[in-house]
Specification:
Helices cover about 15% and strands about 40% of the residues. The strands form two sheets. Strands 1-2-5-4-3-6 form a six-stranded antiparallel β-barrel. A six-stranded antiparallel β-sheet has the order 10-9-12-7-8-11. The chain is globular. It starts with 7 loop residues before the first strand and ends with a helix.
Length: about 200
């Protein structure tokens, strides 16, 4: 489980394809604190550390993960938002994030607003999925590339988020532009409420 508070935007230093899998080698400042079999969120995708050395570590993304996320789009040198799993004795500064990406969305607009930025994202709308809680609500929470954010001006298939300078500079939002594909995880609480409502109808 994660909170959507990114620890670091780390660089991809190597990509190896192995049949349907992709091995991503990452370099970050806390490599020495990682352990084999540890879960780390990569752009909002929970992946397991499978190898490490003094300078970097490796995680593996399988076919299903590549199909449901933007990890297959990564290239060497790209920044990836990293977050280690949440400590139970800490504050939940973001919101409950599972690390299970629901879908991807495309950035359709970026507007600078006097020191901050407003990003608009569009995803494929599915009525059946929306009835199961896969949608956004105004002032609700959404995870974009692993970042916990507050939703603004949602429609059936779009939403906006406002990005402060700190988030822009310390996550891969600095690389997101029109046409960039991002990972989306909808709020788990909304999914539970939608499921409960369906059972009581």
């Amino acid at each position: 489980m994660f909170s959507g508070i990114v620890e670091e935007a780390a660089k991809v230093v190597d990509i190896q394809k192995d049949k349907g899998n992709v091995h991503l080698k990452m370099k970050c400042s806390f490599v020495d604190e990682l352990k084999i079999d540890q879960s780390v969120s990569h752009n909002g995708v929970c992946l397991t550390v499978v190898a490490k050395n003094a300078d970097n570590y490796t995680v593996t993304a399988i076919d299903e993960t590549l199909e449901r996320s933007n990890l297959g789009d990564l290239q060497i040198g790209n920044l990836v938002n990293l977050e280690r799993s949440m400590l139970l004795n800490g504050r939940l500064d973001g919101h409950i994030v599972q690390g299970h990406v629901d879908t991807t969305a495309i950035c359709t607009d970026v507007v600078e607003e006097n020191g901050s930025w407003r990003f608009t994202f569009e995803y494929d709308f599915d009525q059946m999925m929306a009835q199961r809680g896969y949608f956004t609500v105004d002032k609700g929470s959404v995870t974009v590339n692993g970042v916990s954010l507050t939703v603004c001006n949602p429609t059936n298939n779009t939403f906006e988020v406002a990005i402060i300078p700190y988030t822009f500079e310390n996550t891969n939002f600095c690389q997101i532009k029109k046409g960039t594909r991002v990972n989306i995880e909808f709020d788990i609480i909304g999914k539970y409420i939608s499921r409960l409502a369906a059972l009581t109808d």
